[in-house]
Amino acid sequence: MLYDGGESDILDVGQPLQIPIPTLPEGIYRKGNTGPQVKALQSNLVSLGFSLLVDEIYGPKTAGVILQLQQKFPPIKVDGVYGPQTKASLQTLIDTHFHLVANPTDKLVLVNRVNGLPAEYVPPDLVVPNIPFAFQEYDPKKQMRKEAALALEQLFTNAKQNNLSLIGVSGYRSYERQAQIYARNIQISPTKAQFSAPPGNSEHQTGLAIDVSAASINYQLSQSFAATPEGQWLAQTAPLFGFIIRYQLGKEAITGYQAEPWHIRYVGTAVAQIITQQELTLEEYLGNSR
Ligand SMILES: [Zn+2]
């Protein structure tokens, strides 16, 4: 029930009153600054989901949050100092209802353009799945969370039994690594922003997603994977092992990303089968589509 603020004298106690968030301050603030403007900034950061003490002191924690937010907006300077450009970027996050996810270790965690992971989040149980990769040497991107890695091994074993040459390309990716990739993509072409995930907004940071490909298309991550025997088999079979094709054709407006037939996300067998059978996205399944 909405409190209309005048006509009704009944306050629905089940609904917390929305505390108005102050507007973002003008000016430049950096480590060491104090006062009500810093408080206004901190209140906004807390409203976005960052755990921060609203103490009116621009300390290392506030600077750290500003720094990780700046990494989402290349080519803005990443210096932890709040100024006009950072203000504009923050306003964009507020206007698009960005929120930091509160349950990063949850198997069903929703990470997309508006639900972001904290920079410091590293999955607690990363392992390297025993599957063929497109490259030999160790790389952090070979990792996945343990439960997803075990399921992936079973999926790949099944593929092999069906004489399909499925291959792993890229699994876990840290916030820092995603920041580098995103900044480079933006530098090459600003329009690439629509295909690339800002740091914190990539499912690869959850350790529950991996990009896969096939020898027949040279291990590339391209739309042509969908038409390969491996791509077709994957779309059919992945849900039986707990994976969904996360970014489907025609669902771009919901997921925020172009179709990616090569990107699979672990959600567990029960949910994967419901999502696939009902042709849903994870957003729709979680009732979170905008
Ligand atoms: Zn991917």
Give an overview of the whole structure.
The chain is of the alpha+beta class and 290 residues long. It has 9 helices and 8 strands. It has helices at residues 36-47, 60-70, 84-95, 146-161, 175-188, 229-237, 252-255, 269-277, 282-285, and strands at residues 99-100, 115-116, 126-127, 144-145, 166-170, 209-214, 243-247, 260-266. The strands form 3 sheets. Strands 5-6-8-7 form a 4-stranded antiparallel beta sheet. The longest helix has 16 residues, at 146-161. The radius of gyration is 21 Å and the shape is elongated. Residues 1-12 have low confidence and may be disordered. The chain binds zinc ion (ZN).
Per DSSP, what share of the residues sits in E-state strands of 2 or more residues?
A: 5-15%
- Helix share bin: 25-40%
Structural class: alpha+beta
What molecules are bound to this protein?
Answer: zinc ion
Summarize the structure.
The protein is α+β, with helices and mostly antiparallel strands and 290 residues long. It is 31% helix and 11% strand.
Question: Secondary-structure map with pairings?
Answer:
Elements: H1 36-47, H2 60-70, H3 84-95, E1 99-100, E2 115-116, E3 126-127, E4 144-145, H4 146-161, E5 166-170, H5 175-188, E6 209-214, H6 229-237, E7 243-247, H7 252-255, E8 260-266, H8 269-277, H9 282-285
Bound molecules: zinc ion.
